[in-house]
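Ticket #329: bound-state structure for flavin-adenine dinucleotide.
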Amino acid sequence: MSDCLIIGGGAIGMMSARYLALSGVKVTLIDQQACAQESSWAGGGIISPLYPWKYDDLTNELSLASQVVYEQLCAQILEDTGLDPQYLKSGLLMMDEYDSDEAIAWMKRYNLNYQSHQQGALFSEIAQVRNPRLLKALKADIVNKGVKIIEHVKIEKLLIKNDKALGVVSSNKTYLADCVLACSGAWSSQWLDLKEEIFPMKGQMIVLKSKPDTVENIVLDQGRYIIPRQDGRILVGSTMQNVGFDRSTDDQTRKALHEFASQRFSSLANAQVEHHWSGFRPASKSAKVMLGKHAKFDNVFLNTGHFRNGINMAPESAKRITQLINHET
Ligand SMILES: Cc1cc2nc3c(=O)[nH]c(=O)nc-3n(C[C@H](O)[C@H](O)[C@H](O)COP(=O)(O)OP(=O)(O)OC[C@H]3O[C@@H](n4cnc5c(N)ncnc54)[C@H](O)[C@@H]3O)c2cc1C
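RESOLUTION: The complex was predicted; output attached.
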């Protein structure tokens, strides 16, 4: 029996496991496949919402508080595991929308500003992580911190008795715990009854092989972005497709993303597309994060529905859910 069972081993589940374990909670984390294979792997790793003024207050709060701790957190994870999440303050060059009324009001409210740039607005404090590496490091880190990971087990439902969760159930086994924390991303509504449905919003991305310093900053324009990694690889994303759990990628999108990057950096026109993939953002109609207690069961907690911002909100979401679980159980 564990103090807390976490269902889902993406960035949200593993970051929550880290914070809970550090607070002294005995954690078991279960994933239906190997951890770190889904949205958190597929994403871009930008440590900010793309146009922050388009999001609700909670998203902004979680994101801004996470931005403050990310660099130190990555340094600590590197020190503890020897694996580098490659936190990089590459800055973000926004080529559109930064001068809208909404944007100006948001910057005033949060006391944030940008430097003028020939092609737009440079937000020099915005950073990125190499999310697949962050996840690899987090996995090693939580194992070091005593978290038990069970992979390739799909949870089918809660085990409920007298309005309380005793644990969770897979096709052939029961797992008991004092509390359950759902971090199962786009699949959350498949095994949990939630107030608002969570569904997958597919995003396609490509990576171009290039030389370091071809692109200096993250570039954002017309909702699409270019992310330069330290080793010269350049990610270009992404689509927003409400098509269910369909993982397919298509040539038209690959070409459109490559063209988007080439139009802004002509040297990328001949760069090889090394890989093209898709991922499922955990979306909901309201686009609001579900962070807190389940509506019906006092010892079931939710940390899901992070939509386009799960990497950038992970630390503060994990911190808050840890505080709530420790206070309530
Ligand atoms: C193309 C793309 C680009 C993105 N770019 C960014 C970005 O730049 N910055 C940013 O902050 N965010 C970005 N995002 C969004 C971000 O990736 C997500 O918000 C985040 O990964 C959600 O994390 P998660 O842990 O909730 O979900 P996931 O990483 O999907 O993890 C959920 C886990 O739960 C497991 N699971 C589900 N159901 C069960 C079950 N029944 N039993 C057991 N295990 C289960 C799954 O196997 C999975 O491992 C992007 C997403 C995409 C697709």
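RESOLUTION NOTES: The longest helix spans residues 57-81.
TICKET STATUS: resolved
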